[in-house]
């Protein structure tokens, strides 16, 4: 493979048995600054060994289950359209749906959410176009600085995870301090800014509904500044010649308070782990996927579920998605502590977690990478 600087890089495949230096190959891949897309553009027929997923207990999930049983469950779809009409009864019903989904499943989908369908389509298309630009254009934004407000990279945990994921990402931290406009790729800039405004409003609405569903005042989570900081992860999963050997995104739970996901309209691949079954989440026209993150599970003392999920690699076509992570204001307020909400505790429900800062949590999450283990474990009492 030739990188954007004209240097040639050869990677070991599963058929190679000698002279495999994993760290050397990880560095060589990173230095191409072309991501996984660069491998596809080079016409590879076998995936490099750094992408081969090691055997895990997940390999046996669903194998002994009736195929139809995994189809009996689907992620709840909640219509938010009636909530604007001022009907208290209707609002209560929607809040009940939201909190029930957060407690039982950790995931739900929303329709009539206020984000224009044409804007969602445009957002996905712009992400696709960015990732399919020539390698030298993408390389100008490539950096492995996790503190950068705008960056293109492949695998944030490239050097920590057991295997690399078949995925490239453009990352942009939009709030509370957005990057300079010129730091955002021009092909994404205007659409991302417009989409961000709509998702911010939806996020605030969802935090309000969740607060009420927990029996707290509507502004509780907003006052805790859960919605004050957010970032976009614009993922690109290239077509893969051997999808059975790798994974698009390894099993993980999200490292934030709340995630709003815009997934590909045509290519599925997202799976949620529900009752020890991997459940497909096929695209629903006009819907956005919402899921609880680790920080909200911690604050709710396990009442709300941060559920593990993954993305499969696929053979036929590239897949795109845009995840908005509401992660709070840890950079501006690094010493702010978060722990189980006192109003949710009782004599029979003691704190399950110790207080921590978002910075401490994220440092741990990033250091361990997507290794299939919960980042919350070390914070348990």
TrEMBL record:
It comes from the Eukaryota. SUPFAM superfamilies: Clavaminate synthase-like. This is Fe2OG dioxygenase domain-containing protein. Gene3D superfamilies: B-lactam Antibiotic, Isopenicillin N Synthase, Chain. Pfam families: 2OG-FeII_Oxy (PF03171), DIOX_N (PF14226). Residues 228-328 form the Fe2OG dioxygenase domain. One of its GO terms (molecular function) is metal ion binding. Keywords: Iron, Metal-binding, Oxidoreductase. Belongs to the iron/ascorbate-dependent oxidoreductase family. The lineage of its organism: Eukaryota, Viridiplantae, Streptophyta, Embryophyta, Tracheophyta.
């Amino acid at each position: 493979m030739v990188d954007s600087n004209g240097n040639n890089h050869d990677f070991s495949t599963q058929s190679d048995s000698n002279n495999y230096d994993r760290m050397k190959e990880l560095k060589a891949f990173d230095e191409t600054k072309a991501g996984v897309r660069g491998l596809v553009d080079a016409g590879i027929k076998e995936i490099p060994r750094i992408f081969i997923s090691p055997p895990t207990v997940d390999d046996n999930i669903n194998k002994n289950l009736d195929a139809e049983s995994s189809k009996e469950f689907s992620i709840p779809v909640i219509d938010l359209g009636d909530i604007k009409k001022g009907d208290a009864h209707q609002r209560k019903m929607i809040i009940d749906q939201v909190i029930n989904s957060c407690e039982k499943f950790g995931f739900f989908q929303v329709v009539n959410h206020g984000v224009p369908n044409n804007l969602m389509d445009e957002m996905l298309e712009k992400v696709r176009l960015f990732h399919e630009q020539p390698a030298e254009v993408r390389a100008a934004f490539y950096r492995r600085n996790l503190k950068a407000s705008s960056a293109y990279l492949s695998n944030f945990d490239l050097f920590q995870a057991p295997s690399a994921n078949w995925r490239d990402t453009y990352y942009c931290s939009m709030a509370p301090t957005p990057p300079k406009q010129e730091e955002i790729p021009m092909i994404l800039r205007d659409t991302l800014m417009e989409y961000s405004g709509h998702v911010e409003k939806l996020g605030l609405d969802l935090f309000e509904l969740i607060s009420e569903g927990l029996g707290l005042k509507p502004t509780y989570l907003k006052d805790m500044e859960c919605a004050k900081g957010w970032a976009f992860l614009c993922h690109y999963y290239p077509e893969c010649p051997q999808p059975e050997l790798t994974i698009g995104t390894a099993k993980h739970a999200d490292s934030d308070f709340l995630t709003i996901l815009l997934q590909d309209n045509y290519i599925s691949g997202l799976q949620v782990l529900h009752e020890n079954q991997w459940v497909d989440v096929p695209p629903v026209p006009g819907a956005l996927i919402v899921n609880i993150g680790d920080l909200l599970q911690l604050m709710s003392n396990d009442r709300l579920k941060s559920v593990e999920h993954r993305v499969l690699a696929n053979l036929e076509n590239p897949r795109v998605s845009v995840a908005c992570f509401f992660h709070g204001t840890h950079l501006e307020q690094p010493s702010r502590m978060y722990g189980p909400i006192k109003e949710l505790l009782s004599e029979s429900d003691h704190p399950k977690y110790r207080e921590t800062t978002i910075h401490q949590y994220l440092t741990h999450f990033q250091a361990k990478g997507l290794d299939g283990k919960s980042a919350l474990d070390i914070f348990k009492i």
